[in-house]
Specification:
This protein is of the alpha+beta class and about 70 residues long. It has one domain. About 30% of the residues lie in helices and about 15% in strands. The protein is built from two helices and two strands, in the order αββα. It has a two-stranded parallel sheet with strand order 1-2. The longest helix is centred in the last third of the chain and has 12 residues. InterPro entries: Lon_proteolytic, Ribosomal_Su5_D2-typ_SF, Ribsml_uS5_D2-typ_fold_subgr. Pfam families: Lon_C. This is Lon proteolytic domain-containing protein.
Amino acid sequence: MGAIGGLTQKMWAAARAKSDLFIMPMENCQELPSQIPSDMTVAPVNNLDEAIDAIETVTAGGKPAGIERCETP
């Protein structure tokens, strides 16, 4: 998995589409904007399995690991 371009624009587009979960690569942690849509959970992931886990967690009513993962070295 690698970083994506246009992170901020993609995040706000997802918010306008009423998404409550935004999955992003861990490689984008340094680009995380200071303002995140208020009703959105951002789930940084290392691989597809973690992305699927985040989706399943939200679907089951839980909250996946969020941007606090970006603060972990």
